[in-house]
User: What shape does this take?
Amino acid sequence: MTDKTRVLFVDDEQMLRDMWSAILSGEGFEVTTCATVSEALSRITSEKFDALVADLNIGEAGDGFTIVSAMRRVQPQAVTLILTGYPAFQAALRAIHEQVDDFLVKPAEPKSVAEVIRQNLLRQRKHAPVLTERLNHVIEKHREDILESWYKAVESHPEIRKIPLPREERIDDLPRVLDGLVRPMDDWEKVRAGRRSAAYRHGEKRRQQGYTSDLLLEETRILHRVIADCMQQNLLQIDISNVIPDLVEVHDRIQRTLQLSLDAFLRAGVKTAA
Assistant: This one.
């Protein structure tokens, strides 16, 4: 048996794994390295560790969060650290500080990494249970705030506001779009028919109201931004182990709705010209 602090280091780059294994071993830690999420999850469920250092992006963007989430559930006493090469991401990492003990920005100084691990181990933080939700549930909770933020943004847009519309006509089918986004992430096929007709009507209405295709696209871009802002403000509520696939799914649903609306918009233009 060994009394050394056991560290699990996860990165998909062999050079970094070898380098940090040597550095942390030289600082007195017992180091285990992994290259993939599946390998890390296997280690977490079969071995005991005192600390985890995971790169933010392992194979896929945000994979480090998946590993952190697993470590928090299986070994809640372990210190969890994220290693990232994107300093701008620090704000987001601070926002989820209840799930990640600390973060390290590449290129990190070896001595500072060892010191951060030791400092966090000494804190002996007692993690409260993390009650998180999937992204669609967070969107549903903040549905009215999203609607209001979107409305204010489009009303202040210099080109969109040139087409004056009452509030209810401006918002139009956005509530139905949000309702589609908050359906269970595996339930999209059940709502496709209804969403298709609503999206189609929306495209036809926007043509009648005097929108251009560029403005239709701009409305969608604003919705993406508003949802991203909502996510940023509520990171503590979001299940970080699913945040990347959930974001992809939400983006895909919005794009499919836009595609249907744009198709109806263009077809309505052809009919008008005829």
